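Deliverable D4.2, example record:
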Amino acid sequence: MNIAPAPESLAFSAETLKIDGAAEIERIVTGLRAQLRGMRKRGLVLGLSGGIDSSVSVALAVRAVGAKNVFCLFMPENDSDPESLRLGRLVAETFGVAAVVEDIGPTLQAMGCYERRDAFIRELVPEYGPGWGSKIVIANALAGEGYNISSLVVEDPQGNRTKLRMPPTVYLGIVAATNMKQRTRKQVEYYHADRLNFAVLGTPNRLEYDQGFFVKNGDGAADVKPIAHLYKSQVYALAADLGIPEEIRRRPPTTDTFSLEQTQEEFYFSLPYDRMDLCLYGLNNGLPAEQVAAAAKLSTVEVERVFADIAAKRRATRYLHLEPQLVQPVAEIAG
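Output generated by the structure prediction step:
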């Protein structure tokens, strides 16, 4: 993908992130084929959520190895939005790939995922139980507090919502229990990959990959990650070129992890993806905050806060990108 840094003499805007869709698709497809040959795998397995990233990934996989060599999984659980399954099936039908439903709810129940999560929530809300809903939201970086504060939002059976600050133990406990969902899905993906001699395809875009918006050994685990170099707005552009159904291209990005509906901005990012892309690109290419501010329709101070938030998340999530650490390299298998 050839995106040259925007010289200051030229206007910086969303147009700067435009790519040649046909050329980029061909480049990714060629890369996937070469990677599979190197791994001696004959196809690709991936979880299909009905979101834009997994939908684009399915389409690219089909271009690379043919529909008969792509196997998709729908992996709902007790908190999943039924709309995700419907849209996932629409994508599978659109591209003619085999797909099965693997309901991971009973597995998570058996492992105590929901019980463990609810026990931590009850440390703040003792009455929390059946009929209640919850989610975690993060303070917006534009507020200028200088650090990220996560809060718990609960909704009682009558629809009344309460937002509460969480001590670290409660936050970490809820996240630890919730992360079981992504890790269980990945276990199922690798089961099918092993039986088919396929590789597992991961679906993070550049914004998610850069900012550590994934679970280590969960949705962060994969053999190939073909769209990790693409800004999210570029993924949406490829979706149109690849024929992704329009209702998926219109759907706002969600986490589909908590029992209450939740956007990605609520949970992790400072801004909607299109403006986050502009800020990330600007920071990556050394553009002044003033120039990024004009493109993203923010103040210079707000862009500087987003820059700081991006840097802070990179530091906090560096561990997620690390390979297992060895005391001493094993030379015989290095490289």
